[in-house]
Amino acid sequence: MSGAQFSAENSGGGAFVRQPNRFTGRVTPHSTSPEGGGPDEQGRWPLEAGRYRLIWCRACPWAHRARIVRGLLGLDEVISLGTVDPIRDERGWRFALDPDGFDPVLGIGFLSEAYLSTDPDYTGRVTVPALVDTLTGRVVTNDYPQLTLDFSTEWRRFHAPDAPDLYPVELRPEMDALMAEIHRDVNNGVYRCGFATSQEAYDEAFTALFARLDALSERLAGRRYLMGDTITEADVRLFTTLVRFDVAYHGHFKCNQRKLTEMPVLWAYARDLFQTPGFGETVDFDHIKRHYYATHDMINPTRIVPLGPDLSGWTTPHGRG
C-alpha cells in the first residue's frame, strides 16, 4: 500500500503485519553436533561459551529485551555483545559505532552481510536482535521471542549462581498466554498504530492498545510484578515498550490517548523496573529518539527529533515493593 513505511508488511486494509522471523536455529545442550560444529539436522547449534555474539540496537525494544535477559542471567561473559547504530538506512543496521565502522569480532560493516552469508537469497527486512555464530559468521536466529526464553532454559548451565528464574515452569501456561496478549496489543500494538495506513486499522490497534494497558494497570494494582513477587520474562517484555512510550510511541506512533506518566500504576511499575539493576542502565533515550524520529521518513519526513519529554521522573521514588 502506498504511503506505508514497510510496504511489504502492510495488508490490503492498511494494517501493519510484521514479517515472520527468517532464522530460527537454536543453541541448546541437546544438539547432536560436536563442539565447533554447525547445526544438527534439527537446526540445533551446540551450546558453547564465547562462541555466539548477540547483535542488538539500543533503540530497538525487541533487541533490548535480549540485552536485559542476558544481563539478568549473568551471561555477559558467555555471549558477547555487538551494537549497531540507531540510524538505519536502506542498507539496514550498520556498525557505525565501532572503530572504522566494522564489528570487531565479526569483521562486517552491516548486519545484512551476516544475513546474506546465511541466506544469499534473503530479501526481507534485516532485524535485531540476531544471534550470530562467530566461527562461521552465520545468523543462528533472529527469532526474538524464542531467543530470550532459550537464554533462560537452554543456557542454564552458564547462569550466574544468583540468576533469577525468568521463566518458571509452573507459571509458563499463564505467562505464555499473558505474553501473547502483551505482544499482540502492546509490544506490536504500538507499531500497528504507527504503521497503519488506514484510519480503520489505526483505530482498531489504538483501541486494543489502551484497553490492554488498562487491563495491565488493573492486574498490577494488586501485585508488584506481572506474575507476583518476582520479575519474570513477562516484565522484561512489557518494560521495553513502556520505557519507549512517552519518548516515541505517544507522539511518533500516535498512541496519544494518555502518556505513560498519566497512567499511575504503569508509571510506578515502569519506574520500579527502571531502578532495578539490569534495566535502567541498558536504556539509551537518545538512541531511542533518534532511531524512531530519524528513520521512519514516511511518518516523520522532516526527521526532526523532539527535545522532550522531561526524563527526570524515571529516577523518582516509585512507591512499590
Automatic annotation (TrEMBL):
Glutathione binds at W93, R125, V126, T127, V128. One of its GO terms (molecular function) is glutathione transferase activity. It comes from the Bacteria. The active site is at C60 (nucleophile), Y191 (proton donor/acceptor). Residues 1-44 are annotated as: Disordered. Residues 168-295 form the GST C-terminal domain. InterPro entries: Glutathione-S-Trfase_C-like (IPR010987), Glutathione-S-Trfase_C_sf (IPR036282), Glutathione_S-Trfase (IPR040079), Glutathione_S-Trfase_N (IPR004045), GST_Omega-like_C (IPR047047), GST_Omega/GSH (IPR016639), Thioredoxin-like_sf (IPR036249). The record marks Y249, Y292 as: Lowers pKa of active site Cys. GO terms for cellular component: cytoplasm. Residues 1-10 have a biased composition (Polar residues). This is Glutathione S-transferase. It comes from Micromonospora tulbaghiae. The lineage of its organism: Bacteria, Bacillati, Actinomycetota, Actinomycetes, Micromonosporales.
